[in-house]
Amino acid sequence: MNANRVKQILSSSADIEVTYNGASVWIDSLNEDGRTATVHLRGPLEERSTVEIGELLEK
């Protein structure tokens, strides 16, 4: 995924499914470096991780 698509997903009101290493995640923000994003798993756990946006896949 690229930074422009991450920005589109963040500004969209639609529920767009994104995965990281096979796990469904929510994108919280695109980081200032433009190469990483803060995400958390969909579900009850709110643990956030910083990941390379190139490793995010849109379903």
TrEMBL record:
* Reported induction: Expressed only in the forespore compartment of sporulating cells.
Q: Name one GO cellular component term.
A: endospore-forming forespore
List membrane-spanning regions.
none
Oxidoreductase: present as a keyword of the record? no
> What is the annotated localization of this protein?
Spore core
InterPro entries, per this entry?
Answer: SASP_SspH
Keywords noted in UniProt:
Sporulation
> What's an example Gene Ontology biological process for this entry?
sporulation resulting in formation of a cellular spore
Would you identify the family this protein belongs to, as annotated?
A: Belongs to the SspH family.
Which protein is depicted?
Answer: Small, acid-soluble spore protein H
What gene name does this entry carry?
A: sspH
